[in-house]
């Protein structure tokens, strides 16, 4: 009986290990680009002049050209504006850019460039000098893989 329990444990271990190794590593989309890319407020503001269906371009240092069609432009709560831009040159990944006014009436921007199909992306952050920078992120840390439980 002890041998049967050992074999059962070994089989369970092999099945579990097989499931872990079966997950494929996602490709990196931005491996050739810098980890940090500076972007001006003027460049970000210019994106919001476009309407749904228009093509926009964001030319960034490091030869990164983000060009695509505005798929969605919405305003929430009368003050938060958000654009969704589809980028065909990068596997139709979406660039989501938002802006709003803070309590001091300054315009604040946020943006993410990511997809669950790729291992990397960018997130817009404002540094201590007030400059906006796209910082490279690992999407698997932001978008954890969720597997549905098997019901038998």
What does this structure look like?
The chain has 152 residues and is an alpha+beta fold. The protein contains three helices and eight strands, in the order αβαβββββββα. The longest helix is centred in the first third of the chain and has 21 residues, at 2-22.
Q: What keyword list fits this structure?
A:
disordered N terminus, alpha+beta, 8-stranded antiparallel sheet, globular, 8 strands, 152 residues
List the helices and strands and how they pair.
Blueprint: H1 2-22, E1 36-39, H2 41-47, E2 55-60, E3 64-76, E4 80-87, E5 93-101, E6 107-114, E7 120-126, E8 132-138, H3 139-142
Antiparallel strand pairs: 1-8, 2-3, 3-4, 4-5, 5-6, 6-7, 7-8
Please compute the radius of gyration using only Cα atoms: 22 Å
Largest sheet: 8 strands, antiparallel
Task: Strand order, main sheet: write it out.
Answer: 1-8-7-6-5-4-3-2
Unreliable residue runs: 3-15, 17-22
Rounded mean pLDDT score: 82
């Amino acid at each position: 009986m002890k041998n049967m329990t050992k074999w059962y444990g070994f089989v369970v271990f092999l099945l579990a290990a097989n499931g872990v190794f079966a997950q494929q590593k996602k490709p990196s989309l931005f491996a050739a680009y810098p980890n940090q890319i500076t972007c001006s407020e003027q460049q970000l503001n210019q994106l919001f002049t476009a309407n749904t269906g228009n093509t926009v371009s964001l030319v960034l240092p490091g030869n990164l050209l983000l060009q695509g069609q505005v798929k969605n432009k919405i305003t929430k709560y009368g003050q938060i504006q958000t654009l969704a831009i589809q980028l065909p040159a990068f596997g139709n990944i979406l660039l989501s850019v938002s802006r709003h006014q803070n309590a001091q009436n300054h315009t604040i921007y946020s943006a993410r460039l990511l997809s669950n199909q790729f291992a990397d992306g960018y997130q817009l952050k404002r540094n201590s000098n007030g400059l906006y920078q796209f910082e490279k992120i690992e999407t698997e840390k932001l978008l954890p893989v969720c597997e549905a439980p098997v019901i038998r």
